[in-house]
Amino acid sequence: MTESDRLVHDPGGGLPRLVEIMRRLRDPETGCPWDIEQDFASVAPYTIEEAYEVADAIDRQAWDELKGELGDLLFQSVFHAQMAAERGLFDIADVADTMSDKMVARHPHVFGEESRDKSPEQQTRDWETIKAAERARKAETGVLDGVALGLPALLRAVKLQNRAARVGFDWPSTDEVMDKLREEMDELRQAPDADERFEEFGDLLFVMANLARHLKIDPEAALRAANAKFTRRFRYIEDALDAVGKHPKDSSLAEMDALWDAAKALEKRR
């Protein structure tokens, strides 16, 4: 048995084992055809999906699943690092070192000479100051530079608004955001064609993201919770109809609405 085989089959091999498995999967002569043909762009959607599955396990407090989901996400990092290593760009050790350097630099109150005796709010301001300096070194001089285009749209909207708020471009209170929300809803109602409706709907979502920010609500988390609630209540409708031998498509809206209200009342009693 080769050293590679011993590592691949070592149940306690840890991260080196995973890195070796990925290297073997990408071997152009003996690897997996699917893994070999992938590139950064084709793997990226899986990386995003795995991150959401981690968040989903946490939302559901499915701690027995979380280890596996974190492993899936870790595998995505190893996959990208292997493809980078094949191009001579960097490897997984460089990834770890880069992250370590960043964390040490961003936490001078832990790893340096600064005092830890400051509030979480002050630490957040210090963090942003350090990040701003990092962006300046990358020649990212605009206030909005560096907010990743690939972020989910709601999350990116909040990050853009937070950046703008740091330089004073923000409504002073929730009241002004609510007024803007009503204005955008009116503009959506009055939109004369599909192109205008598309634009006004985007504006409405952007203001909703701003409202979430002012209310200190994570809009992605709130929408995930709303999706979960809708799923629970619609399953109640399906189960109730199935109990009498019916299917939603064979039922009236009034009948399903009544079951929806029943599901809502049942949740409130729990």
UniProtKB/TrEMBL annotation:
Broad EC category: hydrolase
Gene3D superfamilies: MazG-like
Catalytic reactions on record: ATP + H2O = AMP + diphosphate + H(+)
EC identifiers of the protein: 3.6.1.8
Stored CDD domains: NTP-PPase_MazG_Cterm, NTP-PPase_MazG_Nterm
InterPro entries the record matches: MazG-like_dom (IPR004518), NTP-PPase_MazG-like_C (IPR048011), NTP-PPase_MazG-like_N (IPR048015), NTP_PyrPHydrolase_MazG (IPR011551)
Domain NTP pyrophosphohydrolase MazG-like: 38-111
A Pfam family hit: MazG
Keyword presence, Hydrolase: yes
One annotated GO molecular function: ATP diphosphatase activity
PANTHER family, sorted: NUCLEOSIDE TRIPHOSPHATE PYROPHOSPHOHYDROLASE
Homology family: Belongs to the nucleoside triphosphate pyrophosphohydrolase family.
UniProt name for this protein: Nucleoside triphosphate pyrophosphohydrolase
Organism ancestry: Bacteria, Pseudomonadati, Pseudomonadota, Alphaproteobacteria, Rhodobacterales
